[in-house]
Each structure stands twice: as C-alpha cells, then as structure tokens.
Amino acid sequence: MDLSIAIRNGNGKPRYQALADELRAEILRGDYPDPAQFPTESILCARYGVSRFTVREALRSLQSEGLIQRRRGSGTVVQPAAARGGALHQPLSNVGEILQYARDSSYVFEPMGTTPLPRKLSVHIGDASGGRWHHFRGLRTRQGEQGPIALTDTYIHPDLAAAARQIRPNEDPVFRQLERLAGLRIARITQDIQAVSASAPVAAALDVPRRSPCLRILRCFVDPSDRIFEISASHHPGDRFAYAMHIEADK
Amino acid sequence: MDLSIAIRNGNGKPRYQALADELRAEILRGDYPDPAQFPTESILCARYGVSRFTVREALRSLQSEGLIQRRRGSGTVVQPAAARGGALHQPLSNVGEILQYARDSSYVFEPMGTTPLPRKLSVHIGDASGGRWHHFRGLRTRQGEQGPIALTDTYIHPDLAAAARQIRPNEDPVFRQLERLAGLRIARITQDIQAVSASAPVAAALDVPRRSPCLRILRCFVDPSDRIFEISASHHPGDRFAYAMHIEADK
DNA sequence: TAGTGGTCTAGACCACATT
DNA sequence: ATGTGGTCTAGACCACTAA
C-alpha cells in the first residue's frame, strides 16, 4: 500500500537530504494543516525504510530552517507560517536557502565589465592583488512592493574571468552559474551586516531619499580551499527590508 | 599516560557537549598554533574514550561556531582568528554565543519601571493584551571604542513581573537571570535585523548624529511552549558595529 | 594506498511529556 | 505506562585527499 517513492541513493544525493527535500515540500505545500499531525521519527523510519539516523539528520535540517519544532516527550510540530516571519523577511540558515530566497521575488542583473575591487571590499578581505574583477549589478524586486528591495554588486575573482564571461543574466544566481561554469564547489559564505547611509547612486537605484538608512550585506563566497571567488555587496532599503533569523537554544 | 579528565556524564551534561567545551577552550586558549594540527576523529575517540557519534556531535558544534573547518580526505583545521572576523564583529550561531558575546565588551543596564509594550513591538509580535511589561535599558561598550556600540531596551512579559522585580543590573544578561528566577527554559530566539534612522533619544544615548543609520536588532525570547517571555530592541551605530555570520554549504 | 571525514545501520538507554 | 525525541555505542561502507 505504500506508494511513497522509496528514499534511494541512486542520484548521488544522501538519503537524509532527499528525505528532507520530500518533507520540506510537504510542509510548504500545506500538507499539515494540523501542526501536530507531523509524523514521529519511528513512523518516518518505517515509511521510508531508513534508519533513525537518517530521519534525524533530515529533521535536523528542517529544524534549522525553522520549519519544525521538536520537543522530547511531546513530538514534532510544523511551525505555522505566521511564526516564520512576515512579509518582507528573509530567513536564511544555509546556502540552499539563499538560493531559494528567490521564491517570491525576482532578480535581474547585467554585466558591468571588469574593475579593480572597490577599496572598501579589498580592505575588508585583505586583497592586495589589484587584479580586475568581473562586475555585475542587479536589482531584486518583490511583487506588491513599490520599489526594489535590493541593489546588488557582484564581483568575480580575476582567476575566473573565463567563466565570468559566460555568465548570463536572468538565469540562476551568479554563484550557481559559477559553480557550473568553473567546476567549483562553494564551501561556505561569510556575511557582514551593517547599517549605512544611502549614497547618491544607491539611493537612485533603490528609489529612496539620499542618506536614508540602508542595510548593507557583504557576502564572501568561499571554496573548499578557502579561496574567495565571489564577493557581493547588497544594499536594502531600511523601511522595506528586514533580515529575519532564528537561533536554537543549546540543549 | 593519558591524564585527560575522561568525558563523563555525571554532571548531567551530555558527553558531546562536555567534549565541545573542552575543545573550544583549547582552541580559544591558542593550543593549536598550527591550524592543521587539530586531532582527527579517531584520535579524539581514543583519547576521550567516546564513540565517533559523540566526537562528531562535538565537532559539529565547533564548526557551527566557525571555530573549525572540516574537509573529507584532508582533515580538520582550526579557523585562524583572523578569518573569524575583525574588531567590531559579533558572530552568533547559537544562544550560548549570545551570552558569550559579552566577552570583550561590558553591558550595564538599569530598571525603568513598567510600561505597555511600545506599539512597534506589540504589532511585531501580535500582542494585544495591553499588560504592563517590565522595562530595562542598557548600554554596551567596548574597550577602545569612542562610544557605546549598543543601546538596548528589554521588556519582560507581565506574567513574569515577580521575577522581573528581582532582576539585578550588572550581573548576568536579563534572560539568564529570568531563567533562574522564574524557573523557565529558553527554547529559541527569533531575530529581526533592520536599518533605521537614529531617533533623538537613540542618537543621544549612542553619541551619534540624529538620523544617522543604525542597525536595529529585535529579539524575541521564546520558551518551549512558544510563549514570548522577553523582547529586546537593540540599536547599534552603523559605523561602529557590524553583525558577522557564516553559513555552511549544503553538502 | 592509507587515512580522512561523510553517510548509514541496528541496536540501546535515557529524560521527558502525556495518558 | 506508553511513546516521544535526545544521547550514545559499535560497527560498516563510501567519497575524497594526499602521499
């Protein structure tokens, strides 16, 4: 009677990740109108024919994304969408979500040629190579908003110039295209959040008054060898954007 | 010859957490001048007489705190302090770190009596009870800075008024004192980061010009039953404070 | 090829919440 | 008393890196 597609390992994806994807889709689809009706670990083990380890790894992902909450003795409940943040929020807990965050917003960008890394950024990462980085500039908009929610400047390391030239606007995010074109993997992202005043060009692009407060997010994309291959600087209008996150307690 | 205090379970603390505490102390103490000299999983298993599960749980904590990086095939290396963020940074990945973040800064606060929750906050959490919350106000300063790095307003839920009256300034953070005084546990924190203009009182307290950009962090402290028992609103001067974080890649 | 960390199994005992 | 999720063991196989 069990028609569920068994969680296999054929595609190369770990089982716990495939299981997490499956359960995440169910939750976002609204399959659990009653939050307490989420299956227990033992049920998931039986239903998908995997060990408890695999189930727990999958649920750990969902918990870190804020989709479920777990309590010893009681069980697992899905977190109501209302508690997951309001309209202008961007909850992020892993690289996958940075991609997925494009869900209900759209991003268009265009190539700006090559340039030395702006001084603020080169100081920030301690880069003194002085090479020319490929530069892209983009705007993120959200339906129902009266203006863009982000202006993003993206810089690609000089060593990846060949791949950078093949990047096409309006498809995947820049770092995903880079992964594919240059055959590299992203290991982690470091992020720096600061409040700044809108400079004239930023204010114009975001359609906000000059000097109005902006959230600036500096991201460094790092490969497994600790090389920074991409840097992005995003400016978000203070009144149209909030960065939401949740932090689990130590047990 | 092994004089290491065995990782026990007597104190009630899980073994993996005791191990993480031990290794974290070693790293912060500078016991690994050569970052690559960090022990492998099998060495840690043998040295502390625990299973690989326990070791990996401990290392998972340290990795989420950005203290170590791990690579299949190569090994585990401690993350050089330089790569963990510069002077004004506050890296946070769990509740423990929010406490620990007091490391090289000092925080003083004073009671401000009781007040209805400010409208901005009550709207944010959807609270319409209208009760009077205990209010504390504090300043965080950092040695070597020419001004405070945070102005924090903390509000305690009316139900905890009895405990709130016993809170003493200049000791533990408010939420730690609440845990002790009211016998509650904190399950998680939700956080909202936004850029705002300094209002007159905020500007005066932070010693910055009026309307200068500020990072505002709204925190809701939630108990295991999903009740918000504390809310805090922190304002950080844009030019003296950055919020740093790191995000691991999906495997 | 040897050794690393990543995934996975099948068990076990426990603290805790609910019945 | 039952069942939940949290901790922990002892194995195993694998993908990957480095020598």
TrEMBL record, chains A, B:
Gene3D superfamilies: Chorismate lyase-like, Winged helix-like DNA-binding domain superfamily/Winged helix DNA-binding domain
Higher taxonomy: Bacteria, Pseudomonadati, Pseudomonadota, Alphaproteobacteria, Sphingomonadales
GO biological process: negative regulation of DNA-templated transcription
Highest taxon of the lineage: Bacteria
Keywords tagged on the record: DNA-binding, Transcription, Transcription regulation
Lipid biosynthesis listed as a keyword: no
InterPro entries: Bact_HTH_transcr_reg, Chorismate_lyase_/UTRA_dom_sf, Tscrpt_reg_HTH_GntR, UTRA, WH-like_DNA-bd_sf, WH_DNA-bd_sf
Protein name, per record: GntR family transcriptional regulator
Positions of the HTH gntR-type domain: 13-81
KW Zinc (keyword) present: no
Gene Ontology terms for molecular function: DNA binding; DNA-binding transcription factor activity
